[in-house]
Structure to design on (78 residues):
């Protein structure tokens, strides 16, 4: 499990394809929840990689992607 910590790639946000079926899979979060995650991403960076398919379709991590993009990030861990 120790090797898992570093098994990710970095890709440009504009390469990632959003899939409508997955986009609204979870309930909408409160503004407070969004602000907490945004603050965490600002202070600690992206701790968990996004989950994408081989053809860059986003499977999990829509909130993180949205907030990282809002923070001006051009690349994300996947």
């Amino acid at each position: 499990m120790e090797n898992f910590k570093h098994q990710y790639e970095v890709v440009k946000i504009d390469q990632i394809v959003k899939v409508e079926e997955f986009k609204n899979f979870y309930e909408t979060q409160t503004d407070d929840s969004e602000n907490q995650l945004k603050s965490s991403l600002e202070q600690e960076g992206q701790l968990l990689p996004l989950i994408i398919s081989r053809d860059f379709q986003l499977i999990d991590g829509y909130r993180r992607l949205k907030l990282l993009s809002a923070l001006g990030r051009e690349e994300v861990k996947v």
Summary: The chain is about 35% helix and 15% strand.
